[in-house]
From TrEMBL:
Residues 21-77 form the HTH cro/C1-type domain. Coiled coil: none annotated. Transmembrane segments: none annotated. It comes from Pinibacter soli. This is Helix-turn-helix domain-containing protein. It comes from the Bacteria. Gene3D superfamilies: lambda repressor-like DNA-binding domains. PROSITE patterns: HTH_CROC1 (PS50943).
Length: 83
């Protein structure tokens, strides 16, 4: 993948964060709709975020709010080392 070829694929860093949120969501038994309600977003947006072919992603505020929901640190969604 070329550096700027992200039109239909998420960059590795963003996809890592999203998969961490998905894993936490599933582990805690939350649906996409549950997450959408907590973040005051549409379920469709959460579906787009979780789709590898969409450019939608969580921002820092979203991650902070998700950490509150999952009772964890926002750092748990970030990689330990640069990707």
């Amino acid at each position: 993948m070329k550096k700027w070829d992200t039109k239909f694929k998420k960059v590795k860093y963003n996809w890592y964060i999203i998969t961490q949120v998905i894993n936490k969501r599933l582990l805690e038994g939350y649906t996409q709709e549950d997450v959408a309600i907590h973040l005051n977003l549409s379920t469709g947006f959460i579906g787009q975020v979780e789709s590898p072919s969409s450019r939608a992603k969580y921002n820092n505020q979203h991650l902070n709010e998700l950490a509150k929901v999952f009772k964890c640190s926002p750092r748990e969604f970030l990689p330990d080392k640069p990707l």
